[in-house]
Amino acid sequence: xxxxxxxxxxxxxxxxxxxxxxxxxxxxxxxxxxxxxxxxxxxxxxxxxxxxxxxxxxxxxxxxxxxxxxxxxxxxxxxxxxxxxxxxxxxxxxxxxxxxxxxxxxxxxxxxxxxxxxxxxxxxxxxxxxxxxxxxxxxxxxxxxxxxxxxxxxxxxxxxxxxxxxxxxxxxxxxxxxxxxxxxxxxxxxxxxxxxxxxxxxxxxxxxxxxxxxxxxxxxxxxxxxxxxxxxxxxxxxxxxxxxxxxxxxxxxxxxxxxxxxxxxxxxxxxxxxxxxxxxxxxxxxxxxxxxxxxxxxxxxxxxxxxxxxxxxxxxxxxxxxxxxxxxxxxxxxxxxxxxxxxxxxxxxxxxxxxxxxxxxxxxxxxxxxxxxxxxxxxxxxxxxxxxxxxxxxxxxxxxxxxxxxxxxxxxxxxxxxxxxxxxxxxxxxxxxxxxxxxxxxxxxxxxxxxxxxxxxxxxxxxxxxxxxxxxxxxxxxxxxxxxxxxxxxxxxxxxxxxxxxxxxxxxxxxxxxxxxxxxxxxxxxxxxxxxxxxxxxxxxxxxxxxxxxxxxxxxxxxxxxxxxxxxxxxxxxxxxxxxxxxxxxxxxxxxxxxxxxxxxxxxxxxxxxxxxxxxxxxxxxxxxxxxxxxxxxxxxxxxxxxxxxxxxxxxxx
Length: 654
Prior knowledge:
The chain is of the alpha+beta class. About 60% of the residues lie in helices and about 10% in strands. The protein has 3 domains: about 10-240, Growth Hormone, Chain: A; about 240-460, Growth Hormone, Chain: A (Up-down Bundle), CATH 1.20.1250; about 500-650, Glucose Permease (Domain IIA).
């Protein structure tokens, strides 16, 4: 294998590994707060406080979290816009990943300490302190989460590669399952060490909060330092800052983003309610709290298979099919829980059907949302990476708010608080639990299934077509003014009265027989191509640099490369006709977007036999893409050219 390809694969592997590793901490922080904070609030935060007062405080916390999180839902797109408009030498994501990740983790530990025990000393001061601490935690966690998932389209524009990053991150979401497995043993053990009591007391919860915070901080640094944004023309041409007005307009006019987000929100409401009440099912309905670890073990084991399998399955099955089958599995799980919640084997079966497909559902949704970024860019002319992907954590936050409110309300209404046991539960309390945890959630999942299947149109094939169209548009219109991929500022070209045109020589990038564009025959046997350029019928499968310059853009399919000379001339080299359908097969790139090169450097290799066997033409087309800026061209009269021979002299306005 070519040394360049080996290097690229190693770099890509470590980028995927570091990105995935970070989600161990990210998912652990999310579930610790999103699910188990309310368990802590209802069971230990107000230990020693009279029950009537404790119930009031629980209701207060539940209401505050619900209201605050719903208000902050509308802040998340603004957070995404801030991230999108961030421009530092470290990129747009790293400052938020490291800084916001560290701050939110520290505040998580503070909340699980009962704000240093204030929850048991003064309800008034605790309330005063809790509100700003919670808001600050939630905002910084949102910055970290939005930056993390918003980075995916910045790492690659290829839909399949995005599935690898997302699958790896979803695989490492077993961090939340580890939390589920260890939470009771860790909290109980630490409580016993400090108090001698075998229960889930405040010392155990404090230690647990600190443990999760440390993991979260470590993982924030790993993703911040171990991944690298890909700077290409698709991103560079939209580097200008986006106003809030433009941002909301772009979101409102991205119909596919909205249709993807809505069923995910509906699904999230149902799923969050069930997940938040799962501990109560084992403790107060089944009277088997010691088996709650099963709900962590099953998704952990499933995660080792579902995430790696997703990209493989997705090669043969569309993500819409994967989504539909997965939702049907969860619907069956709800039916089993409704009819047999007191039967342990049936409950375990239901847990398998419930947890296993969740990874597939998440993957399908997040990848569809990611692909709507290019859809929105093509439709509206605005590229919103972090803003678009801020939608997903915003929806999770809404679901979490509903979950926290529901858990707190059900716990109090059904008598599932403090020292209550399964024996003290009333039939009315059990019925209320089933209605909220199973019946309502079942209805919501059925609705989410139908909405996604019938309204979401962005498929893998459709996204590839959109990316091709975007790249062709950029290439044919020229990319002058786009920020160079190495984060340096692009040349500013100003035409002054009386300014002279510079003459720039372009060498033949490949050896072969020169052909006028009017005589080029395409893959459909149509004669003649538009544009300012020349064709070459190659006698070799290598593309060399025609001048000193920089790669503006390499298409994901590798069959088109756009170059800019150091003098400012932009040239598009199109290898083959119809080769876009090969999706990169038979092509090897030796440079990437943003890379500088010298005249004569090897840029690309292509397999002429594979192209011809696929039924396409291997003709290489060289186009000058700057329209009126190229005032005169003088093409070679040689019939046979070798790479490095002068192919054209072009005069470019200065």
